[in-house]
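Let us practice reading a record.
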Amino acid sequence: MFTNLIVGCSAVLIMAGTLNAAPGPLAHLPPPVQKGIRAQLGDGRVRSVERDDENGDVTYDVEIIRQGKTRSFTVGADGELIDSEVFVEELPPAIQQAIKTKVGTATLGEIDKSASDGEADYDVEMIGGGKTRNFTIDASGKLTDEEVFLAELPETLRLSIGKAVGTGTLDDITRSFESGAVFYDVDAIEGNKTVTLTFDAKGSLVSKQEDVALSEVPDAAQKQIQTLASSGKVISVAKVSENDVVSFDVDIRDGGKVKSYTVSVDGKAVLADAN
């Protein structure tokens, strides 16, 4: 058969052949998604399309072959491009140099390009010393964050992380650089939830963040979130505890854009970002 469907818990994998064959391997997809895929395809050929549904936010991971290279990209349910795989030789010279300098003697892996507020970010994979890690370069070639491992950190920071994680399970650690300051985002698994603990360079716990259901949000904040999402869809809600103050970071997909808000316990909202 031309199209093969494999249904899992949250994804449908559509194996595809050439785009131009009638009725077309993408005919099963919503028209906006078809249009978004075609916009990226050019004279290439679709290998596969995987539909992913995460808490009601539907995206499509697409793999194509173009000019002899296999590459992938992701589009939203509205067909908008979310991110795309690129190759180092396709990038501006300053970005190429920044990536090559950071990778050094390690092996360069996949590079994914995404855009926020019209500015590109490049998430880069590198393999070295038997470990795979990722780092992010911004549009100017500046390193904005990088994956690190516990054994690489100063003892004071390691002790702080161990104390905060407690009986949980340590997952990823990301070192980020913000306005001259350095922070460490530590993902840990507590029960059936993943929490993110943020530490400063001295090892002090700055904030704790965990995904929550909308039903777990206090009434005033919940009502405000529902109002903000009246014409869109809530993608995620995260409870943030910082300096004994609790707030909620909310992502809402509306009109092809993801809008991020910070909502206080009493329902006051601030637009944090829109892209």
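A brief commentary: The chain has four domains: 4-82, 88-147, 149-210, 212-274.
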